[in-house]
Amino acid sequence: MADVKLNNIKKSYGNVNILHGIDLDIKHGEFVVLVGASGCGKSTLLRLIAGLDEITEGELQIGSELVNDLPPAKRGVAMVFQSYALYPHMNVLKNMSYGLKIAGKDKAFIRKKVQQAAKTLHIDHLLERLPRELSGGQRQRVAIGRAIVRDPKVFLFDEPLSNLDAALRVQTRVEIGKLHQELGATIIYVTHDQTEAMTLGDKIVVMNQGRVEQCGTPLELYQHPITEFVAGFIGSPKMNFIAAKVQSIEADHLVLRLSNGAITKAFVDVTSCNLDDDVTLGIRPENLSEDSDLGERISASVSLVEQLGEASYLYLTLSDATEMVMRTSGESTTTIGETIDISFNAESAHVFNADGLALKRHRAGNTKSPAELARLKAIA
Amino acid sequence: MNFALPMKHNRGKALVTHAVLMTYTLIALFPIFVVIINSFKTRKAIFNDPLALPTPETFSLVGFEEVLLRSEFGLFFSNSLIVSVVSIFFVLLFGAMIAWALTEYSFKGNMLIGILVAMGIMIPIRLGTVSILDLMSSLHLVNTLWALILVYIAQGLPLAVYILSEFIKQVPKELKEAARCDGVGEIKIFFTIIVPLIRPAMATVAVFTMIPIWNDLWFPLILAPSDGNQTITLGVQQFIGQYVTDWNSVLASLTLAIVPVLILYIIFSRQLIRGLTSGAVK
């Protein structure tokens, strides 16, 4: 079993603190995605786990062994780099087998391992080629293959898809997902792409300025972001934020007066609220509607329309100049300059207090993963 | 040939560039050309018309006969070859190792060594000739090829370190890290990852190092002038007398001395061109 435990991990370069004490508990076989804006320390954290940088403070355990002072190869981890980092002067076979050769494994064993990995990744016909003779997607597979042959306890991926074009990225993303099912290995995956994070991760760790902002399943993060940062980071286009004041406090909901004067309800935990508190209302673009009246109405003028085909994004401006985005049907005929009434369901509203912390939502939607749902259905 | 450029004014520019380069090439090649044609002529023909090509009447191999049969040319030649090859080998080996150490690891004195190496490029080694001779005589190395080899290694290292450092810096960090993840030791990373990748740069350094060593007269004259240890440039001097100079032999031995440099150049030239343009052209 290869659980990965991070206990108050800190990293600083000189006087500059990059990571301010990271605690994480990763179970064997889990697919954990580290996301965050660039410079948030997610790649640094991965490099610390890999052993490429020294941990300044804290404890790192892999499979219940303290590995702080072990070199990368002894930690039982394998890393796949963003730039693939294939040895340019070695062919695919040598690239994949080099680590095993260094480890002193015998030739027959190496051959078997490489063949097996190459087959899994559909690159068995490329073994004699040099990296420069391969396409981006193929190089990516070789890089993954090089990691697989070493039978690592933990796979580390550092933005592996960011050098691929859009179509290939989707395809490879699906393949990495399948690979995880097949190998059942622990994977730690760094990305700044939230679609990758949502689709691949069993667990997502959102990082911000060297701290873990929130850690949870994809839908937990989507439905119950605990801070304004996470709410803005997960979901695309990002959540709309509207400044508001608490007008009245009811048993199970708040009544808010928005900055443009509109009055709306929000079903959130009210225990920590006071009248006239400054709060922020958060509402996702996909929860807004222009056609049907979902209860809470706002009037806004359209400043830009993006037609994507299956949907259109309307960029809206409220009377107090607050900017908003909404996702509407691709059939919408709303155009620039019109003033429309949009509405949302009070249950889909998020509310954040003045410190940017979320008030717990009462009636959030599904947070269960496909696997959990399947299990529940099987029981029923 | 890159004459077929699409735009008209580009072609004009290319023509001017090529004209300048051609002129320079002609000027550079002319003395070599004169040496080679005259080495195949009789002594009289050399003096009558130094610029004429050898004709059936003036053609003569007397110089080559003299050099190859009646002098110790073979010995001079092999001395030069040993000194050059051994020096180049160690310049490349130590140069790459120093460059790797200076660029990859931060340690105390890293900066100081870097500055010393840079000073080695700026200050000609010949300024230290007296101390070098002193040192060599204390080490009982005077009149051995080792004296030359040691001096040439010292002479070649600074530039080698400088050029190779630049190339080693360009090797992506991820490659070394990938190797470290693969469990490859630092020395193995150097020999199996870094060295193969900077081969073009090493070829460049090899040529830049070889030419001054092969052509050097100064140190052979001072450090190893005795009969058994003369290099080719020094050996040629025996044909140049105070009153009579055996031009046939001088020109013939110079012609022969060009050959190994030429061979080396041809071997390295493919690598060399890649080395000089790598980075600029991807």
Describe it for me?
The complex is a heterodimer of chains A (380) and B (282). Chain A is of the alpha+beta class and 380 residues long. Chain A has nine helices and 21 strands. Chain A has two domains: 4-229, 3-Layer(aba) Sandwich (Rossmann fold); 230-359, Beta Barrel (OB fold (Dihydrolipoamide Acetyltransferase, E2P)). In chain A, strands 6-7-8-3-9-10 form a six-stranded mixed sheet, sandwiched between helices. A six-stranded antiparallel sheet of chain A has the order 13-12-11-14-20-21. Chain A is elongated and about 75 Å long. Chain B has 13 helices and no strands. By secondary structure, chain B is mainly alpha-helical. The mean pLDDT of chain B is 86. Chain B folds into two domains: 1-60, no CATH class; 69-277, MetI-like (MetI-like fold, Orthogonal Bundle). In chain B, α3 packs across α13 (247-277) and α4 packs across α10. Classes of the chains: A alpha+beta (380), B mainly alpha (282). The interface between A and B is medium-sized, with 25 and 16 residues.
Summary?
With 380 residues, chain A is an alpha+beta fold. Chain A is 25% helix and 33% strand.
Secondary-structure blueprint of this entry?
The complex is a heterodimer of chains A (380) and B (282).
Chain A: E1 4-13, E2 16-26, E3 31-35, H1 42-50, E4 57-62, E5 65-66, E6 77-80, H2 92-102, H3 107-120, H4 136-148, E7 154-158, H5 166-183, E8 186-191, H6 194-200, E9 203-208, E10 211-216, H7 218-223, H8 228-233, E11 240-249, E12 254-258, E13 263-266, E14 278-283, E15 288-289, E16 296-307, E17 311-317, E18 323-329, E19 339-344, E20 350-352, E21 358-359, H9 370-379
Parallel strand pairs in A: 3-8, 3-9, 6-7, 7-8
Antiparallel strand pairs in A: 1-2, 1-4, 4-5, 9-10, 11-12, 11-14, 12-13, 14-20, 15-19, 16-17, 16-19, 17-18, 20-21
Chain B: H1 8-39, H2 43-48, H3 62-70, H4 73-104, H5 110-122, H6 129-138, H7 145-170, H8 173-181, H9 186-197, H10 199-215, H11 218-223, H12 232-236, H13 247-277
